[in-house]
Design a protein that fits this description.
Largest sheet: 3 strands, antiparallel
Order of helices and strands: EEHEHHHHHHHHHHHHHHHHH
CATH class of the largest domain: Mainly Alpha
Number of domains: 3
Number of helices: 18
Strand order of the largest sheet: 2-1-3
Distance between the termini: 90 Å
Structural class: mainly alpha
Strand content: 5-15%
């Protein structure tokens, strides 16, 4: 559906203007003629800028909201064509609205919803596309999309929780760095004249005064170095392959590693449970869930698990051979396979690992704050001690 602005001539000879929604310009003209109006001009609506829609990158929250509305309307019995047309006109993001308009056009040509969704090139996880396909095959598109949306919300909540948890340590570190910079800029230079008697100053006092003087004289080099480090860090984090390498290296650390692994296993188990619950075949679910695991080492293990299961081994034994879970996890999977309740057991496994991951994260954050305070306090204390030593040395020399 598109919005068209019109100017028409009414039966009494007055000129009216307004807007309406139609699939095409011809359909819009027909609607006006059925109302007894004579079209004078008919133009496509100006677009997202005038309708209040954002034109930037599609945010995950906008995508989740649109898919949630889609699944809700489908579950309420609305036809998929009407649902997609509604999203094309009401989506808050212009690019998202355009994507839904393309999906609507594909559906009118007789294409399947899954194929239209793939061609829309929305930033969707692979498992949601597979859930849409499975939903079409079983006649449960609404239920399948609802499960996919819950999985996306779960993953987004993990990312949000991690970002929120790191806000206070980040602010603490930035405040400490700002305090150190201010001391070097405003305090240390006032005692730079004492460097004339460097051979009679304590080593710590000489180092503090020398570094402070050099930083003030060559501040542009310090600024360039800081910006360079920040640029490299941003580049590494924004490049998927470098970010994955960084995360993989962090898995070897004592506290960070187990937390990341627990979070990934919890995400994998929840994804597997959702796929299996929507009648996705086990092998395909294993491959999709393995592809959705970002940590390379963990993804390699889960890929090997899929190959073992394809070869006829049970899921529990394959996971145990790859040392992918803990003893409780193997037992839950084994019980699920034997009882036919594997999706439910995997959801239980996901909850166990989620709780373990959150516990490790809280423990890590409890340690980060005092460590950051000690480091920053140590640096500031060293600077102050160096200045005090310089002052006392100068007084001794004067005496």
């Amino acid at each position: 559906m598109h919005r068209y602005d019109y100017r028409v001539l009414s039966a009494d000879g007055s000129v009216l203007s307004g807007s309406l929604r139609a699939a095409s310009e011809r359909e819009a003209a027909r609607q006006l003629e059925r109302r007894g109006l004579t079209p004078l001009s008919l133009e496509r609506h100006a677009g997202a800028a005038s309708s209040g829609k954002s034109t930037g990158k599609i945010r995950t929250s906008d995508l989740i909201l649109a898919l949630h509305q889609t699944s809700t309307m489908l579950l309420a019995g609305v036809s998929i064509a009407e649902v997609v047309d509604s999203q094309a006109s009401s989506a808050p993001n212009a690019r998202l609205a355009t994507a839904f308009a393309g999906i609507a056009a594909e559906l009118r040509r007789g294409e399947s919803f899954h194929d239209a969704l793939v061609r829309a090139r929305l930033p969707l996880p692979a498992y949601l596309l597979q859930l849409a396909k499975a939903g079409e095959l079983t006649g449960r598109v609404g239920e399948a999309l609802a499960d996919g949306v819950r999985q996306m919300e779960y993953e987004e909540s993990l990312r949000t929780e991690m970002r929120n948890a790191l806000i206070y340590p980040a602010v603490l570190v930035l405040a400490g760095v700002a305090a150190v910079v201010m001391m070097f800029v405003f305090v240390v230079p006032k005692f730079a004249s004492l460097l004339e008697k460097a051979d009679q100053l304590p080593l710590l006092a000489w180092l503090v005064l020398s570094v402070g003087t050099w930083a003030n004289d060559y501040w542009y080099l310090v600024l360039a170095a800081a910006l360079g480090v920040a640029g490299v860090a941003w580049r590494v984090w924004s490049t998927p392959q470098w970010r994955l390498r960084l995360l993989e290296s962090l898995t070897g650390l004592p506290l960070v590693g187990p937390m990341l692994v627990d979070a990934e296993i919890g995400r994998w188990a929840k994804m597997m449970g959702t796929l299996l619950d929507n009648r996705v075949p086990l092998i395909q679910a294993l491959e999709l869930s393995a592809d959705g695991t970002p940590l390379p080492q963990q993804r390699q293990r889960l890929t090997q698990v899929a190959r073992s299961v394809r070869g006829g081994q049970t899921l529990a034994d394959s996971l145990e051979d790859q040392d992918a879970l803990n003893a409780t996890g193997y037992n839950l999977v084994r019980v699920g396979e034997r009882s036919g309740e594997l999706p439910a057991m995997l959801q239980s496994l996901a909850r166990l690992y989620d709780e373990a991951g959150r516990t490790r994260m809280k423990r890590l954050l409890i340690l980060i704050e005092p460590v950051a305070i000690l480091l920053i306090g140590g640096v500031i204390g060293t600077i102050i001690l160096g200045v005090i030593l310089a002052i006392t040395s100068a007084n001794d020399l004067a005496v």
